[in-house]
Design brief:
This protein has 523 residues and is an alpha+beta fold. It folds into 4 domains: 61 residues; 164 residues, f41 fragment of flagellin, N-terminal domain (Up-down Bundle); 111 residues, no CATH class; 96 residues. The chain contains 10 helices and 20 strands. The strands form 6 sheets. Strands 13-20-15-16-17 form a 5-stranded antiparallel sheet, with no helix packed on it. Strands 5-12-8-9 form a 4-stranded antiparallel sheet. Strands 6, 7, 10 and 11 form a 4-stranded antiparallel sheet that branches. A hairpin with a 2-residue loop joins β3 and β4. α2 runs antiparallel to α3 and α8 packs antiparallel against α9. The radius of gyration is 40 Å and the shape is elongated. 26% of the residues are buried.
Length: 523
């Protein structure tokens, strides 16, 4: 087999070019200490670097989300702490107002301070963050979460949506606490009421408090099933309690209905999760055995009430002026719990929807107005008129089942009770003190709900710190892995470069020698 001079020349030149390219590449690698610049350098390593780069970007986003949540939780905690301090002052005023030695003027002074506390609470509960977003409005950050109604009560205008951000591969966390969760879900301990039924004209001899719920379990499972109850005096020391069906349930009352008209402690009655207080006011010459029999009361839960608001986009100026339950069976069967929307399809026809109203919502009730009254799902709504509503008018309806109570309503009710003069009237004083006791209990309930929300904020902060530490560890591991794949070993690169430079010199020498083997060089 013959090898021509040209073939030797071409082979040696190619070998020289290859060694030269390898030396140049190693020289660049020695300068930058980067081994993988393109996928061609290391296909598997380049693919792995791409995956690690995506993970690094995600970890950076987790870090940004963590900082956002920390800032939001810090602001929320600060506002909640301020509200807690204000509530403590309200509780001090309420407890002080229960002192029987205070005059009407003293209690009215406390009521004045409670009015300032009420305004301060409303301002704090409508606080904004540094971006101008309402902290407790849920996802409706542009809407003030709490507003005062015309009747002095308060409504929550936000929603129950938490804004979650991803802080880990499998972990997301709420950036906010909704006003519904923090303030609207405080248990209302004053959700029973008493009405005197006999004698027809109150003689002032005895009053029975509306009661305080001491056990939610007993109240919901036992009390609600038998209401309304009749509480009657059968003697000067014995009560009788019958349920709605007429069954005698006195045995379930404390001391089996026996009371002592001569002591305050002896006039306390516990029944199916409700604490009641008798206030017996015997006059000079009265005998309890002679005057108390014949007095009777009805005892039951407070009926649901409704707060209605017209939509700002309504074509008419019609307003809902009253809302009452006209058919309890229909009401409990179909009226939406929480809130509803009453929508008019014409000047007289209407539909009732569960809130929120969406394009896919279906009505739970329809009907036609009778005069100026629209009755939907057992509730009658009285509207102003003429001319009355127009087609497409909408009214938002908030249902108050009295199971929970906003702390703003609690402070407002307490303020109103203290502003009411008693003028030394024993019966009025007893009713006022009962209202104060109710306010103290509901302030404590509101404070408990706020404390629970504060604990939730603290728990999220603690979990966030743990997840942040995990993310930092992952970030460091990511960087180390990327460096191991992408970066060069300086010693290895220099050794390889020296070898390649030696090979390049050898190639140069070989090429030089072969290039001199031509025939003309021998002539």
């Amino acid at each position: 087999m013959r090898i021509s001079t040209g073939q030797f020349y071409e082979s040696t030149a190619a070998n020289y070019q290859k060694n030269f390219a390898n030396a140049v590449k190693s020289s660049e690698e020695a300068s930058s200490l980067v081994r993988v610049n393109t996928a061609a350098d290391d296909p598997v390593g380049a693919s792995r670097l791409l995956q690690l780069g995506q993970q690094a970007s995600m970890l950076d986003q987790f870090n940004a989300n963590t900082n956002t949540i920390k800032a939001s939780l810090g602001q929320t905690e600060s506002v909640m702490t301020s509200i807690n301090n204000v509530l403590q002052r309200a509780k001090e005023l309420a407890i002080g107002s229960g002192n029987g030695n205070l005059t009407d003027a003293d209690r009215q002074a406390n009521a004045s301070e409670l009015g300032q506390i009420e305004e301060q609470l409303l301002s704090l509960m409508n606080a904004k963050d540094e971006n101008g977003t309402y902290i407790f409005a849920g996802s409706k950050g542009d809407t003030p979460p709490f507003s005062r109604n015309n009747d002095g009560t308060y409504s929550y205008n936000g929603d129950q949506v938490t804004l979650d951000l991803q802080v880990g591969d499998t972990m997301s966390m709420a950036t906010n606490s909704t006003g519904w969760e923090v303030f609207q879900q405080a248990i209302n301990t004053s959700r029973s009421q008493v009405t005197m039924t006999a004698p027809a004209i109150d003689d002032g001899r005895v009053t029975l408090s509306n009661g305080q719920v001491s056990s939610n379990v007993a109240y919901d499972s036992k009390f609600r099933s038998g209401e309304p109850y009749t509480v009657s005096f059968v003697s000067g020391t014995q009560l009788k309690i019958t349920d709605a069906s007429g069954t005698d349930v006195t045995a379930e009352a404390s001391r089996v209905g026996v009371f002592d008209p001569s002591t305050t402690a002896g006039q306390a009655v516990s029944f199916r999760g409700v604490e009641l207080n008798l206030n017996i006011n015997l006059q000079s010459g009265d005998s309890a055995a002679a005057v108390l029999p014949g007095h009777s009361f009805t005892l039951g839960s407070k009926p649901d009430t409704f707060t209605t608001t017209r939509s700002p986009g309504n074509a008419s100026t019609a307003q809902v002026t009253a809302a009452t339950i006209s058919n309890p069976t229909d009401y409990h069967a179909s009226f939406p719990s929480g809130s509803a929307v009453l929508k008019f399809t014409s000047a007289t026809d209407f539909e009732l929807y569960a809130a929120p109203l969406t394009a896919s919502s279906k009505p739970v009730s329809t009907g036609t107005m009778a005069g100026n009254v629209a009755t939907a799902s057992g509730v009658s709504f009285t509207l102003t008129g003429p001319p009355g509503p127009s087609a497409n008018d909408q009214f938002s309806i908030a249902v108050n089942a009295h199971q929970t109570q906003n702390i703003l309503d609690t402070v407002s009710q307490l303020k109103s009770a203290l502003n009411t003069p008693t003028n030394g009237n024993q019966v009025l004083i007893q009713k006022q003190l009962a209202a104060v006791s109710s306010g103290i209990a509901n302030l404590a309930s509101g404070n408990d709900q706020l404390s629970s929300a504060l604990s939730s904020v603290g728990g999220r902060g603690s979990a966030l710190d743990t997840q942040s530490a995990i993310n930092q560890s992952l970030t460091m591991a990511n960087k180390q892995t990327q460096s191991a794949i992408r970066d060069s070993d300086p010693a290895e690169v220099m050794t390889r470069l020296t070898l390649q430079q030696t090979m390049l010199q050898a190639s140069q020498l070989a090429f030089s020698k072969i290039s001199q083997l031509g025939l003309f060089n021998k002539i």
